[in-house]
Predict the 3D structure of the following.
Amino acid sequence: MRSQENGRFPEQVASRKPSRGRIASEAKAFGKARGYADGGTVTWIVEVLVAIYMAKTSLKTTVEWNAIPWRKLERKVFKLQKRIYKASQRGDVKAFRQVQKTLLRSWSAKCLAVRRVTQDNRGKKTAGVDGRKNLSPKARFILVQSLKLGYKASPTRRVWIPKPGSSGEKRPLSIPTLYDRALQSLVKLALEPEWEARFEPNSFGFRPGRNAHDAMKAIFNTIKFKPKYVLDADIAKCVRRDS
């Protein structure tokens, strides 16, 4: 006897996977009840559930996390970054925007972003508001599958840490969730080569391949023939906080 729903047998109807909208709505309600996010925010917990049910490939993939050819993935991402850098140098906005979109959808770039956040960074064991840290290889694959742009980020966890060079003074530190950190790392892979082609040659802060020794060398080469003044100032306390 056939079911009334689309003429399918009852066992076929029961075995069908739930729709993406149903999974998302149920997971949103769960996240809101736990206080992770508001009703319109999709946390990475939602994306994990959607990836489990809606992924075209099984989680029991043939490629294990530790067996991924990381050198090959790095070469693929580096080739895309070189194309972005050269297009930015010649001012071809349309070209590097298209390559950036390709990189953001790249499985290789997503794997590298997740590895950097969950294995390489010093803050890999620091949890955000969702309390997730120390991901297993299986969970890393789920995170790779769920990475995508276009949603509201989760709230950050605010902690106070000692301020270097001061006695007893502390500064705030906001810690995003692992999902948001992985997404930030992925976006950084796409934006970094674009802006490296535009930055000033004497800028050394937070740039790849440059450190404090390069800055010291640049200062020495600038002042070795003629003395110059050096101004070191912190204007943070000169700005009104109520403005």
